[in-house]
């Protein structure tokens, strides 16, 4: 009887780890908005990381977070760091990795707390007409094994997609007001 009980406990403990082997470790989210301004005006605004304070949901979650900067904003290699006591914000940094002037900016996102993660994001601007621009904000993330098991219980794509959509709506408001 004791052997069966121990075997049952072992199976209960091992089962989530076995399931996690078959759960995807990555996710990708993209959202878009159309802004009624020329592509040069929109790109010249989004290429500066400090401007994210005006539209990013995450940047506005903790107005008291400590921020640090290294390099020249709007240039490859610029790093914007943050430290917050709020668990939803945590600690990390974002670095501009590549700029295709007038078209796309690629970022490395390094999260240190509440968990460590290295992810990629981008913002892309596309001229729809001389005074309309489509902005695409994308985020590619991952959770290492066995943390990827959380994908079964949490909708990461939906949560991040909602935040990006809200951020783009705020970006539209800010840029169109200029």
Q: What is the CA–CA distance across the termini?
A: 75 Å
Widest β-sheet, arrangement of strands: 1-7-6-5-4-3-2
Which series of helices and strands comes N to C?
HEHEEEEEEH
Low-confidence parts lasting 5 or more residues at pLDDT below 50? none
Backbone shape = elongated
Q: How many helices does DSSP assign?
A: 3
Q: Report the strand count.
A: 7
Q: How big a fraction of the residues is strand?
A: 35-45%
Largest sheet: 7 strands, antiparallel
Oligomer: single chain
Helical amount among residues, as a percent range? 25-40%
**In angstroms, what is the radius of gyration?**
20 Å
Mean pLDDT across all amino acids: 89
Q: SS-based structural class? A: alpha+beta
